[in-house]
Amino acid sequence: MAAKQVLHNDVVPQQWVGQPLLQFLKNHLQLSNRQIQQVVRTRGLYVDGRRAHTKAALTQGQRVKVLLPRNEPLRLEPIGMDLDVLWQDQHILAVSKPTGLAVHPTGQAQEPTLAAGVAQYLAADQGRTIVPRPVHRLDKEASGIVVFALNSRVQTELTKVWHTACVHKEYWALVHGRLDGARMFDQPLRGKTARTDVVSEVYYKEFTIVKAVIFTGRTHQIRRHLAAAGYPIVGDDRYGAGSTAQAHVAKRLALHGQRLKLRCPALALDITLAAEPPPLRDIFLEEA
């Protein structure tokens, strides 16, 4: 029997409770479809010490163990790209992601990803292969701060605090309509609690620039909350359909991760990251 390497052996992070094990393998551990097939074929997938099926839903407190044959490569195919590096130390690398670039590979599409660019940057900087592990998600169409853990221990420690008061996540958005003052949206998403606090900052013609702070990490949370309230984000083709304020066609989704405060006592990490939002001329196809 081929020797195996332990890819993961830890308790399920809170944000993955209720999610299929397959999504955990793809999006948290960043395994390719081929690697997942190898894990399953070689009987390397366990939950609480018992072999598990990829369709199984994860529950709180469960321990997932993932083993992969040592001859199976883990590395991403590095791709050279210009990165806007915001922070780098022995634990993390934080960059400002441009719009239109996926954070990590999804499905079968072979397209450049931010993770592949980070892999190339780290290989050149460190002189060795490091598998970058994104700690959180950011939509392909959005831009802004993305944090990568540089090893599995760091990823585990950051995941533990990501949806606690230790992390403050602030986004810039341009929405249709006039959104006044401060609002709190707590509509459940897919049956799960979700909270987004929004403050209007600047009125611009029939639009409003807002600051959004999220306390949970549901898929497309800000986009869905704002659209449901009648203030779809400019350029949101998915949730903004049917808006009566589509007077201008946007080049991109007007959503940007602009500020992140991160404190992780286990890593002695206490930093504040900032990434300037895009100018309005980069949002609209023509002058609004």
List the helices and strands and how they pair.
Layout: E1 4-11, H1 21-28, H2 33-41, E2 45-47, E3 50-51, E4 63-69, E5 84-88, E6 92-97, H3 114-126, E7 133-134, E8 143-149, H4 152-161, E9 167-176, E10 182-185, E11 196-204, E12 207-214, H5 221-228, E13 255-264, E14 269-274
Parallel strand pairs: 8-13
Antiparallel strand pairs: 1-4, 2-3, 2-4, 5-6, 6-8, 7-8, 9-12, 9-13, 10-11, 11-12, 13-14
Short structural summary:
The protein folds into three domains: 4-69, Roll (Structural Genomics Hypothetical 15.5 Kd Protein In mrcA-pckA Intergenic Region, Chain A), CATH 3.10.290.10; 84-155, Pseudouridine synthase; 167-282, Pseudouridine synthase (2-Layer Sandwich), CATH 3.30.2350. Helix content is 17%, strand content 30%. The protein contains five helices and 14 strands.
3D structure, described in words:
The structure is a single chain. Strands 5, 6, 7, 8, 9, 10, 11, 12, 13 and 14 form a ten-stranded mixed sheet that branches. The protein has a four-stranded antiparallel sheet with strand order 1-4-2-3. The protein has three domains: 4-69, Structural Genomics Hypothetical 15.5 Kd Protein In mrcA-pckA Intergenic Region, Chain A; 84-155, Pseudouridine synthase; 167-282, Pseudouridine synthase. Strand 5 (84-88) and strand 6 (92-97) form a beta hairpin. It is globular. The protein has five helices and 14 strands. The chain has helices at 21-28, 33-41, 114-126, 152-161, 221-228; strands at residues 4-11, 45-47, 50-51, 63-69, 84-88, 92-97, 133-134, 143-149, 167-176, 182-185, 196-204, 207-214, 255-264, 269-274. The mean pLDDT is 88. It is 17% helix and 30% strand. It is an alpha+beta fold and 288 residues long.
